[in-house]
What does this fold into?
Amino acid sequence: MAKPLMAKATAVWLVDNTTLSFKQIADFVEMHELEVQGIADGDVATGVKGFDPVANNQLTQDEIDDAEKNPAHKLKLKHNAAADGEEKRRGPRYTPLSKRQDRPASILWLVKFHPELADAQISKLVGTTKPTIQAIRERTHWNISNIQPIDPVALGLCKQSELDAAVQKAAAKKAKDGAAMSDDDRRKLLSTEQSLGSDDDHKMPTAIEGLETFTLGEADPEVTEKQYDADSLFKVPASSEDAEDDDAKDKDAKD
It folds into this structure.
């Protein structure tokens, strides 16, 4: 359910001008029931002027009357046809100033691990411009030597679900175009849920070839480890004097 404008001020008005229960008001303005009770007691929102939801086209009087007669009735925000589509984001997303320096790293990660993504998709995911993406693709970015690829989800620049949706869209477009995909490309086009839920033994990616010699399983029974005894481990090396005595004994024995 959409949240009304000036939620706290609306709650103040409803507390002062209606007989609605605290729960009904709390559910409508998306506040805690105890916070609404605090408004009624004068402990919360002190000095806040009430905001009339009826006069501001957010509620109808009939809706309030029905809720006052039935405590189980939930208030519904009045539909405003002029507001349709306002919540839909258009163009690149807004990136906070504190995270803008992380965008090149996330772009490099997307370009490296998901080259099938179009510039428009990358721009929408991390909130950047196409010239910046192109510069990183062509490695002409002024700071390219210092940029390390980092997952944009780990940086908080986009959600995993958004990244998966973009990857799936790129997969559908590639399949529609009839372009041949390598094994590595197919693995890149899998969403996180599909990758984690798969039981198939896939071919090892070429990026980590050579690691197949390592194993976490049991060691080969034919390969025996070198055995050590306590005497060999804790034997103290002979001193120079002991060595001279041993040499003298060996010389006497020969004479």
User: Anything to note?
Assistant: Residues 22 and 36 are 6 Å apart (CA to CA). The radius of gyration is 35 Å. The mean pLDDT is 76. The first helix runs from residue 7 to 17.
